[in-house]
Amino acid sequence: MSEFVRNVRLWLEPEQVRDQGTAPDYRFSLANERTFLAWLRTALALIGGGFAVDQFLPHLRWAWRVGLALALLGAGVLCALRAVHHWVRCEQAMRRGEDLPVSRFPAVLSLLVAVVAVVMVVVVLAGWAG
Questions:
Q1: How far is residue 130's CA from residue 25's CA, in Å, rounded to a whole number?
Q2: pLDDT, position 110
Q3: Contacts of 60 (CB under 8 A, 6+ apart)
Q4: What integer is the mean pLDDT of 107-114?
Q5: Helices within 13-104 (DSSP H only)
Q6: Is 98 in a helix, a strand, or coil?
Q7: How far is C-alpha 35 from the geometric centre of its chain's CA atoms?
Q8: How far apart are CA 68 and CA 58, in angstroms?
Q9: What mean pLDDT comes out for the span 90-112?
């Protein structure tokens, strides 16, 4: 079974994480959970932003509006999936006494949001000027 499939199974059966290593200090598990919830809030904000672009910028050309909305919605979906994946990986690492996993995802997400924001500014200004 591939590593990805094992991780997805842990998303749906998190009690299996307890079979690994020893229980960390509960404060670390709670901090991991708060981080998970922060990622979910970010995902919800991105999804809300995608819907807002589609609904509140009706004067933009359809392709621009849909493209920007789909970029934000896609980022929200990826962020939500990454949240649970990161939570499982961190919980496993803490139980095994390993270093916490590192990820490029926060940097990639930041760059994606920055690019979408710049495009939105340009499109909105061009739309207002035209």
A1: 59
A2: 92
A3: 68, 123, 124, 127
A4: 91
A5: 26-56, 62-96
A6: coil
A7: 11
A8: 12
A9: 92
User: Region 67-82: what's the mean pLDDT?
Assistant: 94
- C-alpha angle 7/12/14, rounded to 5°? 75
Residues 93, 35 contacting (CB under 8 angstroms): no
- pLDDT at res. 35: 94
Q: Is the dihedral of CA 71, 73, 75, 81 positive or negative?
A: negative
Task: Report which of 89, 84, 97, 101 is spatially closest to residue 17, judged by C-alpha positions.
Answer: 89
Q: Which residue has the tokens 């809300």?
A: 48
Task: Please answer whether residues 78 and 126 qualify as being in contact, where contact means their C-beta atoms are separated by less than 8 angstroms.
Answer: no
Are 85 and 11 in contact, with CB atoms under 8 Å apart?
yes
**How many C-beta atoms surround the C-beta of residue 85 within 10 A?**
20
**Are the beta carbons of 36 and 91 closer than 8 angstroms?**
no
* More confident call, 60 vs 100: 100
What predicted TM-score, i.e. pTM, was given to this entire model? 0.81
